[in-house]
Design brief:
With about 450 residues, the protein is of the alpha/beta class. The protein has 17 helices and twelve strands.
């Protein structure tokens, strides 16, 4: 009998009389998915919801625990987001909440003071509308406005709900950091959304040279340094950049367009402020990739390793706002698009295919396709050509996929090179013969949709 325990940063095995108790970090568990009779997940709010749902689908018995208040929590927003998905996936799931303190007496005055002064119990505004109001206003907060507790508390509650393990320094930076800008969406005095933006870049030439020689790595300039050293855009160090550190929408209004409206407004503010590039870095999920791309942001780099704490790959996205930054950023996006399909078969073989498909869809101009590829793809689709003999043109076709019928199958088999039996298990097929029948049909469907030419 095996029991798996999932805890950030842990990787130990403990033998018990009845079997093994094994602790694994999220990235390792998601990749290997070893057999177990019971999965225990500690601090589940620190793991992206799609990955949690993947674990819930794979394991029969799962217990998940998480902090919803305090600096190791993420507010009630996690319960709302995850609970709705569990209702559909595992109807009848049970929820328990610990209310009696364990480490201190109930109503302890020192704890009450700490919670109030550090906003450990901050929650978003209550009684918000069901849909984002059309007359919702967007504005930048002046620093002195943050001294108003009736504004600061719901604002911080939104930010806590959008990120796991908010640190005490986050509240201090919100109040004091000179390069941190705060923007909100509000209606009738209630904060419905918020964005934190770090002003970065515009570095002096001597420091730029040391960064490019890997001699310096100054803090507080993540976006220009990543563009310069990882994406080969060295001039980014001299640009004025805005990095969206966090964007948060009230849990009841998520997925209803308010986040897109706030981000569009933010882009216009950056353009008026003569910002060259606006960007962000976040743990990649299919939904987040889609959100940022719809707003005109280009993916320029995907982290090669999963973050041990969340099990997600970090994605860097950016959008040019000036003529001087447009061409270098487009070239960086082209380089990423050219490398990513090849990386799928090397370091991203276990990347979720839904994320891969979102990253493969790009507005960057595609290279022309050799003239004989269409006839060879048709021959494969009709069963007149073997898989390995058609692999080169299958690769080219899969690079050009749009999410749709058969796309996930093609990504997993053609680009990631997963074994026939693994693909069959994933889709519920009986074996290789059924997988290849579906693959041939997917190729014909893509040809009919004119995805190649």
């Amino acid at each position: 009998r095996h029991i798996l325990g999932l805890e950030t940063g842990s990787h130990i095995g403990v033998e018990t009389e009845k079997g093994a108790l094994l602790y694994l970090p999220p990235d390792k568990l998601i990749q290997e998915q070893p057999p177990a009779e019971l999965l225990l997940v500690d601090e589940a709010a620190g793991i992206p919801v799609p990955l949690l749902l993947k674990l819930v689908t794979h394991y029969n018995r799962v217990v998940m625990a998480t902090t919803v208040h305090g600096y190791e929590g993420s507010g009630q927003g996690f319960l709302l987001r995850f609970g709705r998905r569990l209702d559909a996936l595992r109807p009848g799931w049970r929820h328990f909440q610990l209310r009696q303190p364990v480490r201190w007496a109930e109503n302890d005055p020192l704890e009450d003071f700490t919670w109030r002064s550090l906003l450990l119990d901050a929650e978003p505004a209550s009684e918000v509308p069901e849909m984002p109001p059309p007359d919702c206003t967007f504005r930048r907060l002046r620093r002195k406005e943050l001294l108003q507790e009736e504004l600061l508390s719901p604002l911080f509650g939104l930010l806590v709900g959008a990120h796991y393990r908010t640190k005490p320094s986050d509240l201090r930076n919100l109040m004091d950091a000179g390069n941190l800008l705060t923007f909100i969406a509000e209606h009738q005095g209630k904060v419905l959304g918020a964005a934190l933006v770090a002003r970065e870049g515009d570095l002096p030439l001597p420091l730029q040279e040391k960064i490019l020689r890997e001699q310096r790595r100054p803090t507080g300039h993540l976006l220009p340094q990543a563009l310069a050293t990882r994406c080969q855009v060295p001039q980014a160090l001299a640009w004025t950049c805005w990095r969206v550190v966090r964007i948060a929408i009230h849990p009841r209004l998520q997925g209803k367009g308010l986040g897109s409206r706030l981000l569009d407004w933010l882009v216009e503010q950056a353009r008026r402020d003569n910002v060259a590039v606006i960007g962000s870095s976040f743990g990649a999920t299919a939904g987040l990739v889609r959100f940022w791309k719809r707003a005109g942001f280009l993916p320029v780099r995907l982290g090669h390793r999963r973050e041990a704490s969340s099990g997600a790959h970090g994605l860097l996205v950016a959008r040019a706002l000036s003529e001087k930054s447009r061409l270098p950023l487009e070239r960086a996006a082209v380089r990423f698009r050219q490398a990513f399909p090849l990386q799928l078969g090397q370091i991203f073989t276990r990347l979720e295919s839904t994320i891969a498909m979102e990253l493969l869809v790009n507005e960057v101009k595609k290279a022309p396709v050799p003239a004989d590829f269409l006839s060879r793809l048709t021959a494969y689709g009709e069963g007149r050509l073997d898989y390995l003999d058609a692999l080169d043109c299958l690769h080219h076709l899969t690079w050009r996929l749009q999410p749709g019928q058969g796309a996930e199958l093609m990504v997993m088999k053609v680009l990631q090179g997963r074994d026939w039996s693994e693909v069959a298990t994933h889709f519920g097929f009986t074996g290789k013969r059924q997988v290849e029948r579906a693959l041939r049909q997917a190729v014909l469907d893509q040809i009919n949709m004119k995805r190649i030419g």
